[in-house]
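Lab notebook, design round three. We kept the backbone fixed and only want residue identities now. Task for the bench partner: fill in a sequence for the structure below.
Input structure tokens:
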């Protein structure tokens, strides 16, 4: 099992503190102090997870996150002193799996690390790599979505929401369920963002977003993906 973690922060004391706690949990730790170095290490050594500060020299954390997510499904925990909801959503929209605000408890960060890695392991055993429903096709290996044989570009969070829903058709997910699974488990007050992402997802995959065929609203509860599904 890959237990290597890349810690990226230009604050060397912060890196040393995080490394200390990770090594206590028997993770192998790699470090980078700027975005350029982070990209080089991640691409060369393929860690199991990246803990990534937002404010970095040479290449900022958001750009590192965007580039890594475009290339792979490498789990990323964003680490930052920025606390606004807009900042959180920007990081999450770029594909970060979780978001930890400084100052933080090292024990809390370790819990986030374990939770993200556990979700990643669960996803790798989630089922078929290709699912079809009507004219919609989702390839989880290539992370490609097609509708009527045309490629549909989804953001990482839109893809994650679609993946959660389509893998369990007919199941009703509350907004909190989707928030925890798609955005990370500790984002109180951001449940409304699920509605925004679902709306954007529908605009891309639904023949008529006003009368959704695939992602259906269950009023007063949340959302579900309509059956049937074909696995390939």
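Proposed sequence:
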């Amino acid at each position: 099992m890959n237990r290597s973690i890349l810690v990226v922060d230009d604050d060397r004391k912060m890196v040393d503190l995080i490394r200390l706690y990770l090594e206590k949990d028997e993770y192998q730790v790699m470090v980078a102090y700027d975005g350029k170095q982070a990209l080089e290490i991640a691409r060369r050594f393929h860690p199991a997870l990246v803990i990534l500060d937002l404010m970095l020299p040479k290449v900022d954390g958001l750009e590192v996150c965007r580039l890594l997510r475009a290339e792979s499904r490498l789990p990323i925990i964003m680490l930052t002193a920025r606390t606004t909801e807009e900042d959180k959503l920007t990081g999450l929209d770029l594909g970060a799996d979780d978001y930890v605000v400084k100052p933080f408890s090292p024990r809390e960060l370790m819990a986030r690390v374990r939770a993200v890695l556990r979700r990643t392991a669960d996803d790798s055993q989630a089922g078929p790599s290709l699912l079809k429903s009507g004219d919609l096709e989702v390839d989880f290996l290539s992370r490609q979505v097609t509708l009527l044989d045309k490629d549909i570009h989804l953001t990482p969070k839109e893809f994650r929401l679609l993946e959660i829903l389509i893998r369990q058709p007919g199941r009703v997910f509350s907004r909190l369920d989707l928030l925890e699974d798609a955005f990370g488990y500790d984002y109180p007050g951001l449940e409304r963002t699920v509605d925004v992402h679902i709306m954007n997802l529908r605009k891309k995959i639904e023949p008529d977003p006003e009368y959704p065929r695939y992602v259906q609203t269950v009023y007063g509860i949340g959302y579900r993906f309509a059956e049937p599904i074909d696995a390939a």
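Keep this in mind before ordering anything: The mean pLDDT is 85.
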